[in-house]
Specification:
Elements lengths: L5 H5 L15 E2 L11 H8 L3 H5 L7 H11 L6 E4 L2 H12 L6 E5 L4 H9 L3 E5 L17 E5 L11 H10 L3 E5 L13 H4 L3 E6 L12 E4 L2 H8 L9 H12 L1 H24 L2 E2 L7 E6 L4 H10 L2 E2 L1 E2 L9 E4 L3 H17 L1 H4 L3
Parallel strand pairs: 1-11, 3-4, 3-5, 5-6, 6-7
Antiparallel strand pairs: 2-8, 7-8, 9-10, 10-13, 12-13
Length: 356
């Protein structure tokens, strides 16, 4: 006998990237920023007073809303704080989807979307990307209540132009959620679209660009009417006092943020060139990871041999991407360890890896 709803019983659930406990690993599997957060963040955490912990936090996180609004060129009423970007995704599924109101998204993409669809018991319509990860023309025509575009896309790292996203926003009949969790590493973003379209929600995360994955903080940008509706399904106190203080300090320190982003971009360029030199094919990435496929060697075999060397990248045994590896951009030292291991694997173990 099961006490769970049938769709929950059937579900496999979301599978996060492996978090190794040993300290001597090269961890390039969960897209964490390899650099520490701003010193201003650590000061904000150290300055937390006991009274801030005794009392409930500001339910709206207004200190952060004001800072984020200024940076994004909107009013605070256009911002909603979230417990990571996943919190906003959960709210969107709750607010817009049910058995009669499906979600649609191009695939392959962030693997949490179908999990949330199953929890909400709504149909998930996956519209396949082509090999170059171009936005599928059919996406708007499926008439979903909620359409999600991860941009830059995970796991490919590819970017759909703002003009194309604007055309999609004009064509869809429901809500368009643009998941910009990785946009800090791209050259453009879709902030201006929320001013043009009342059906657009933009998701932002402080996990990647601001080195705050352990804090769990993200936010939404949308027109005030959309924010008001989303607040109806928000947890009463979804962001805590420490998180609001730390996130506010992080987003205000623009100089440190820009410096960190530029370091990741420069290393991304170097890593891409080195991987191509080793026989990998990979699209240009606008994120803090690359999506690599070797021309002659199987991804699963490479992955297993990296694990034997305490080097972790991301692999999925899933149709369409089963021969690709997602590799987080690390520090130069981390990436050099990875590249050295790959050279050894692709030469010493080459015979074992051929075969398709």
């Amino acid at each position: 006998m099961s006490y769970f709803r049938e769709n929950i019983d059937r579900a496999a659930g979301y599978e996060p990237g492996f978090q190794p406990s040993q300290p001597d690993v090269v961890k390039l599997n969960t897209n964490e920023n390899p650099y520490p957060p701003s010193p201003a963040v650590m000061k904000a955490v150290a300055d937390i007073k006991p009274e801030q912990l005794r009392r409930y936090p500001d339910p709206m996180g207004n200190m952060f809303r004001e800072a984020a609004a200024k940076i994004n060129g909107v009013e605070p009423e256009w911002i909603m704080c979230c417990n990571g970007g996943d919190d906003l995704l959960r709210m969107a599924f709750t607010a817009f989807c049910d058995k009669r109101r499906p979600v649609a998204y191009p695939a392959p993409t962030y693997s949490l979307y179908p999990v949330l669809a199953n929890i909400q018991n709504c149909k998930a319509i996956e519209v396949k990307f082509d090999e170059e990860f171009n936005l599928p023309a059919r996406l708007a025509r499926v008439r979903a209540a909620l359409t999600i575009v991860c941009n830059p896309n995970a796991p490919s790292g590819t970017f759909v132009g703002v003009e194309e996203i604007a055309e999609l926003a004009a064509e869809v009949k429901g809500v368009l959620l643009i998941d910009e969790a990785y946009v800090d590493f791209a050259e453009r973003n879709c902030t201006e679209l929320v001013k043009q379209f009342g059906n657009v929600i933009i998701l932002r995360s402080l996990s990647k660009g601001y080195s705050l994955a352990g804090l769990r903080f993200g936010y939404a940008i949308a027109q005030p009417e959309m924010i008001t509706g989303l607040l109806k399904v928000k947890d009463s106190y979804n962001v805590d006092a420490i998180a609001v203080a730390a996130a506010t300090a992080a987003i205000k320190d623009r100089e440190y943020f820009k410096e960190t982003i530029e370091k990741v971009k420069a290393e991304r360029k170097r890593l891409t060139e080195q991987l191509r030199g080793l026989g990998f094919k990979l699209p240009e990435s606008s994120s803090n990871f690359v999506f690599a496929e070797h021309k002659t060697c199987k991804a699963k075999e490479i992955y297993d041999k990296l694990v034997q060397r305490n080097i972790y990248v991301r692999y999925w045994d899933r149709a369409g991407i089963e021969n690709k590896l997602r590799i987080t951009v690390g520090t130069r030292q981390q990436d050099d360890i990875l590249l050295s291991a790959l050279k050894e694997i692709l030469t010493t173990d080459l015979t074992d890896l051929h075969g398709f």
